[in-house]
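note to self: dont lose this again. the chain is below, predicted strucutre after it. 377 aa total, dont forget to put it in the shared folder this time
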Amino acid sequence: MDRSLKRIDALIREEMTRLLRDWRTLIIMLCTPLLALLLLGYAMHLNVERIPTAVADLSLDARSQRLVEAFAVSGSFDITMHVESEDAVLQAIDEGRVLAGLVIPPGLATNVQRGQAQVLVIFDGSDTLTVQSGYNAAVSIAQAQSMRLLVEKMDRFGLRGARLPIASSVRVLYNPDMKDLVFLIPGMAAMLLQFMSLNLTAMSVVRERESGTIEQILATPVRPIEFIIGKLVPNILLTVTSLATVILAGVFWFGVPFRGNVWLFAWLSLLFIISGLGLGLVVSTIAQTQRQAQQITTLLLMLSILITGFIYPRSAMPAPVQFIGGLIPLTYFIRIARGIFSKGIGLAFLWSDVLALATYVVVAMGLAAATFKKRLD
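---
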C-alpha cells in the first residue's frame, strides 16, 4: 500500500511539475472558462429585445398612431424606419435592414368600430429566436390593445366597472424577472467544466504517448489505476479552481442569485468533475494522437450543447436522442446545477441524477483502467 501511494505521489508530482513549468498554457487554461463565461453571458440571450422594425402606416389616424406607439414603448421593437407600403417592408427585411415589419391597412379606426380591424406583423423567419420573442410580444400588444378597446366599448354602453368572467394571475417561481442569465449561468458553468475536465485528461494521456515519455512510465511497476489517479488529481485541482472562478463571476458579476447549499453544490460538482475526467480517460485510451483526441472532444462538446438540455428541452427530443444524451454526464449535472443554484433544492429531489453521476464515475474509471494497455502499441 505504501509503495502504491509513493508511485501515485510521484505521478502527481510529475504532472504538477509539467503543468507549472508551462505557465503560459496554465494561465490560458485557467482564464479560458472565465472568458467564455463573460462572452456567453453578454452575447447569449434567448429573449431578443429591441428588434429593428419597419412600419408601413397606411391609415395615419389616431388609432394607428396609438398602435405604433404601443409597439415602440414595449421595449421589444425598435422602430427604425417608416415606409410607404407592404412591399417596402418586405424589401427592407430582404435587405437585412430590419428583422420585423408592421403593416397597418387604411381605415383602421373605421374597421375598429366595425370589429373588423386587422394589422399585419411580418418577421424574418431565418432568425428563430427573433421570431419567437417578437411573436410573443406582438400577441401581447395586440391583446392589450383589444382589451383597452373592449373596456372603452363597455363604458360607452354603461357597463363601467364590469369585469371579465375569468381573471388570470401568473406567478413565475425562482426567476420572476424572467432573466435569461438565471437559466444560462448554471448550464454554462456545467458546460465549461465538462469541456475543461474532458479536454485536460484526454490530452495529457495522449501527449505522453506522442512525446514518448510514456515509455518510461511503462518501464516502471506503475499499475493502470495508479496511473489514472496520478493523472486525475492535478486536473481536478485545475478544474475546481475554474469552477470557483466561474461561479463567483456568475454570482457577483452577473448578479445571478445562488439559492442552494454551497457545500452540497461543491461536493456534487467534484463528483461531476471526476465523471468528466473519467470520460476524458476513456477518450485518451481510444485516441492515438492529440488530433484524434481533439476531434472526439469536439464531437462530445457539440452533442453536449444540443442534446443534454443545456438550451433545448430534452422532453421534446425523440427517444433515441434522449438515450444518447443520457450517455453524457452533463445531462445529469445540468439538472443538479439548476436545481441547487436557481431553486435551492437538495438531495431529496436530485438523488436520481446524483446516482447516475456516481454510476458514471465507476463505469468510466473501470473502463479506462481496463482498456489502458501497459505496453506500447
